[in-house]
Please model this.
Amino acid sequence: MQEATNVEHKKAQYVSLLGSIAKQFKWVFAGKVFFVLLGFATSILLARILGTSSLGRYQLGLTVVQIVTIFTVAGFDRGLVRFLPILQMNENQEGRTLVVLNIKISLLLSIAFATALYFSAPLLSFHYFHSDEMTDVLRVFSIYLPILSVLRIVSGAVVGLKRADLTSNIENILSPVVFLILLLLIYFSGGELVSSIFARSAPHLLGTVVLISFLLKKLPKSAQAPKRSVSLRRFLSFSIPLMLIGLIYFLLGQMDIIMLGYFVAESEVGIYSVAVKVAMFVIFGLQVVIPVVRPHFSELSERKDFETLKNLFKTASRWLFYSGLFVFGPILILRYEVLNIFGAEFVDGGSILLILGIGHLANVLSGTTGQMLVMTGKEKWEVANSLLIVVLNFLLNLFLIPRMGTIGAAIATALSISIINIAKFIEVYLIYKVHPYSPKFLKGILAAFCGCVACYFVRWAMLEAGLGYVSIIVLASFSFAAVTFATIWILGFDKEDKMLFEILQRR
Model:
């Protein structure tokens, strides 16, 4: 009798946890949908303002700054996500001190690196990018470096306080809206590359100020010195490996852009960068699910509640897979029409988009395995296998890009993403004896297949009728969504999915 009562109590706790997650998921999801639309609009504006060559230079400069930011942030943002929930759970007042220390260190590092980047810009431009025009681009982007670094730190702190919805609103609504408005002003006033870089920096500065204001209210000063429960050594031993993981993952995601900058023309980099941005929509769910569930992974692991942890892992992984599959379907069928929105010269990236989309689909298929490792204290496993994968990615790019150009870069990236996610899946299974897959996944696969068939025939009929690419995208995408949802409805929703939809429908 007691055992049955305990089982029911555990079920009730899990349902309550899912309800809490779904409520946050609602706002993060809304923010990300808005972000996708804004991101699409800003990408189109950038492509039309800059053209293929200037867009290539913009992307190369941004990539350099993002690489340097990994070292200036030093994994502290993820360390805050890991340890702030523990401090809050133990009602410890040390959180403010930890956040302030992280901001100070990151700011000093970013100023030092920005100065170095400013003065080394001519050397980088001449010896690596083979373009004198990259000098001014790198120097202007160096101003952006401290802003981006501090934003990463304060965003990690806010997520660690279980307010992923707030960071989502800043990163996915406020900043993109300001960026879009500034780009519109640039578009109509005739501004170009330098103006676009400043337009990128301004909204992130605004977002940083808003998040710092929130942290000052949420983490008030303590009347007495807080008891230290998280040593600096423990924090650094967690964060520094995550800096390496962040560097590895960034190189894995940007190795293609970095190496294309050396081997091919800037115009080809511009075409490739647009295909990359569109393909990233496939991992839209990662940006929604991961920020919401990872603090709970950390807390459940700390409490040794591995049964609930495994159940949450499976449910979150299924939601993640559905999100990727339902975005990949329309991209698969409509890739040429989508690229045409950016300009006729970008349609050449259709094959690149398809290959990258397949790689990102493999990413979401692995579920939340990476966060399962990191947030449960197994981050060193991530470092070990990721180091091997980034070497493989480098070698594949080095071999394929000189022979196949941008297509070779896409193949190298897709293969590397697939391999690293297989490695993470194996690690999670070996450590926890759990995998995310179940027959429930088949519903989503069948629904997406039916949606793709409908989308294909609608596209074919509209091409035969001579309609434009915008009309084709709208109507064919609608047919995919309608048929996919109808198929899932016929097959029946799972209990967790019903709960999610009910909360999403509430105002």
Observations:
- Residues 2-73 form the longest helix (72 residues).
- The CA atoms of residues 434 and 465 lie 51 Å apart.
- DSSP finds 17 helices and no strands in the chain.
- Residues 2-220+230-437 form one domain.
